[in-house]
Amino acid sequence: MTVDPRRFISINGIDRRDFLVRGGGLVSAAFLAACDSGGPKSAEKLLRYAERKNLVVERKLFRHTHIDVAPSGAHDAGNKLPSYFVSETVPVWDESVRGKWALDVSGVVGNPMRLTLQDLQKLPQVSNRVDHYCVEGWNAIETWTGVPFAELARVVRPTPEAQFVDFQSFDDDYHESWDIESAMHPQTVVAYGLDGKLLEPAHGAPARVFSPVKLGYKNTKYLTKIVFMPRMNGGYWTDRGYEWYGGT
To answer: Taken in order 159, 161, 163, 167, is the CA torsion positive or negative?
Structure first.
């Protein structure tokens, strides 16, 4: 897929991927450089502070409250949308081995639930024609159909403690966590449809999270669990050096 230079994000001459990988730990690194020889334990409070400061910077840099509007004349990517997964082969939910697929929604909520695909389809749904932004620099337009995350949250009733959300997967235990505000964005959906059809395994079936306010690696496919949390945790790519916030 070709890169649209009008939509490629560059920050001080550094492309988006390099900025996220190299810049994500900037504040943390500055503090660690000043630490004494007491080791990681002595740096724990400073690192927690650095994480909070990084999050403030990221929220200002990226489109936290932006509503994505795809250009009316732009073509949808269709079957040219790349497929990514971390397993050796395309993950497929095998009912003969795992039983019927269902999505567990739990954590600091008042009404934890286990929802089958049919249960999800009975909830209010939307179809959003929006951009998909990849950390590599390209973007693609697709129409995602599913349950608005805010509607799912309304049903499970997260407590005030819920400040983060972890999206977990059966793709070799892939997961990524988000800030609650991005999860509650009006265009964030638990998607089970793509371009008018049910999701296929190549793009995250039976269900995945999708939002144009997060880069592709944050949009966990092959969902099995959504966990509301009081504290942030990492993720498959963020634990490997990619920036945690992953905004667009």
So the answer is: negative
Would 2 be classed as within a structural domain?
no
Q: How far is Cα 68 from Cα 16, in angstroms, rounded to an integer?
A: 18
CA distance 236 to 92: 19
Using only C-alpha atoms, the chain has a radius of gyration, in whole angstroms, of 18
Q: Are 132 and 188 in contact (CB under 8 A)?
A: no
Could you tell me if 53 and 83 lie in one domain?
no
Tell whether 126 is covered by a domain.
yes
Closest by CA position to 248, among listed 222, 221, 219, 228:
219
Number of domains in the chain: 2
Residue 85 sits in a domain whose CATH number is 3.90.420.10
Q: Which of 175, 165, 180, 169 is nearest to 240 (CA)?
A: 175
Pick from 1-5, 64-68, 73-77, 242-246: least confident: 1-5
Which residue type sits at 136?
E
Instruction: Give the containing element (helix H, strand E) for 106.
Output: strand 102-107
Averaged pLDDT for residues 64-73: 84
Range(s) of the domain holding residue 44 = 10-61
41 and 101 inside one domain: no
pLDDT tens readout for residues 9-18: 333 334 454 5
